[in-house]
């Protein structure tokens, strides 16, 4: 299992309820199709975009931190591709967090032996 972070931007023309429902849908995709475990969900809300995307100058940002098997992460990317309400997304592996957890586990194992 690897640690991943996904950020996606939802079209701001949707209502707040529709945007929340889409975030819940992404969370269910991660837990059901990707077989991952969600660690953290950060809703940033409406933010100004660096450049216009789909004729929009704002977007609703969400960042989700999750663990999953690398073979299944592409299922999340496929969902993003076929969902027109999500105007941009990016998913990447958080090796820094994996290393930090591995180091903490090794330290705790050493302390338990002593």
TrEMBL record:
The GO annotation for biological process reads: translation
Q: Matching InterPro entries, A to Z?
A: Ribosomal_bS6, Ribosomal_bS6_CS, Ribosomal_bS6_sf, Ribosomal_S6_plastid/chlpt, Transl_elong_EF1B/ribsomal_bS6
- Report if keyword rRNA-binding is assigned: yes
Record's Pfam families?
Ribosomal_S6 (PF01250)
**Coiled coil regions in record:** none
Gene Ontology molecular function, alphabetical? small ribosomal subunit rRNA binding; structural constituent of ribosome
One Gene Ontology term, aspect cellular component: ribonucleoprotein complex
Asked whether the UniProt record includes Oxidoreductase among its keywords, one would answer no
Q: Which Gene3D superfamilies match?
A: 3.30.70.60
Record's keyword terms, sorted: Ribonucleoprotein, Ribosomal protein, RNA-binding, rRNA-binding
SUPFAM superfamilies to which the protein is assigned, alphabetical: Ribosomal protein S6
Sorted alphabetically, which NCBIfam families does this protein's record hold? Answer: S6
Q: What function does this protein fulfil? A: Binds together with bS18 to 16S ribosomal RNA.
Q: Which family does it belong to?
A: Belongs to the bacterial ribosomal protein bS6 family.
Could you tell me what this protein is called? Small ribosomal subunit protein bS6
The gene coding this protein: rpsF
């Amino acid at each position: 299992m690897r640690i991943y972070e996904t950020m996606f931007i939802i079209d701001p023309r949707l209502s707040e309820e529709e945007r929340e429902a889409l975030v819940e849908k992404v969370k269910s995709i991660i837990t059901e199709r990707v077989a991952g475990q969600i660690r953290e969900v950060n809703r940033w809300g409406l933010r100004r975009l660096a450049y216009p995307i789909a004729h929009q100058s704002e977007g609703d940002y969400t960042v989700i931190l999750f663990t999953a098997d690398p073979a299944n992460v592409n299922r999340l990317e496929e969902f993003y591709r076929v969902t027109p309400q999500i105007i941009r997304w990016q998913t990447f592996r958080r090796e820094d967090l994996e290393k930090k957890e591995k180091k903490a586990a090794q330290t705790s194992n050493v302390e338990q032996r002593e």
